[in-house]
Specification:
The protein is mainly alpha-helical. The protein has 9 helices and 2 strands.
Length: 205
């Protein structure tokens, strides 16, 4: 069982990843169905989108992870937010703070790469971290890539009984620095090591 607190913390983490100006108590209140004065409507929509993605994840916890499944997660997360949602992007994007330009995704290539991650002999935790790194640097969608990659990682973790991935406030700055370095170098080991030691919580909490 996953506690409501862990899910709320994960949704709040998604907001902090995108530098959205919401607090944890505000996130909790919005998830409880109450409007919060002073919170922008698009921030409230982003929180509710992640809520719906989590609901979808839990309904489909036993379904296999595929590229189609990843696109469905993105459809929930980026609804009314990205240029398109639920579809791989068809043009170029830049990433703030780095000169790295992710290539325009090709469905067959992305499908093969994801399949290789999931079919490896790695543990569920390793697969989840590899999938997260792959999704964030691949930038397969116009927007919402970090949130979608985190949700994908959590699908893999929860299905394998391996916990839940959430970056807390105190680790967000270091996470952003390591992620930026990963964008620049393509070497994900330091990022994954950091996430393994600081961002995976047991589901019994």
């Amino acid at each position: 069982m996953i506690s409501n607190r862990l899910i709320c913390e994960n949704i709040y983490c998604g907001m902090k990843m995108e530098n959205r100006a919401v607090t944890f108590p505000q996130t909790q209140t919005i998830l409880n169905g109450v409007n919060v004065p002073g919170v922008q409507l698009d921030d409230m929509q982003a929180i509710l989108n992640m809520r719906d993605a989590w609901r979808y994840l839990m309904r489909t916890i036993n379904e296999p992870v595929t590229l189609e499944y990843l696109c469905k997660l993105h459809e929930y997360i980026a609804r009314n937010e990205a240029l398109e949602w639920g579809k791989l992007r068809t043009g170029s994007v830049g990433i703030s703070g780095t000169d790295y330009m992710p290539p325009v995704p090709v469905w067959e290539d992305a499908e093969r790469e994801l399949s290789a991650i999931l079919s490896s002999n790695a543990t569920a935790t390793e697969k989840a971290l590899n999938a997260f790194a792959w999704g964030t640097r691949g930038q397969f969608f116009w927007d919402g890539n970090k949130r979608t990659s985190m949700t994908l990682a959590n699908k893999i973790l929860i299905s394998g009984g391996a916990g839940i991935l959430t970056i807390t406030d105190k680790h967000m700055e270091q996470f952003n620095a390591l992620l930026l370095d990963y964008y620049n170098t393509g070497d994900s080991e330091a990022l994954k090591d950091f996430l393994y030691h600081n961002a995976i919580q047991g589901m019994s909490v």
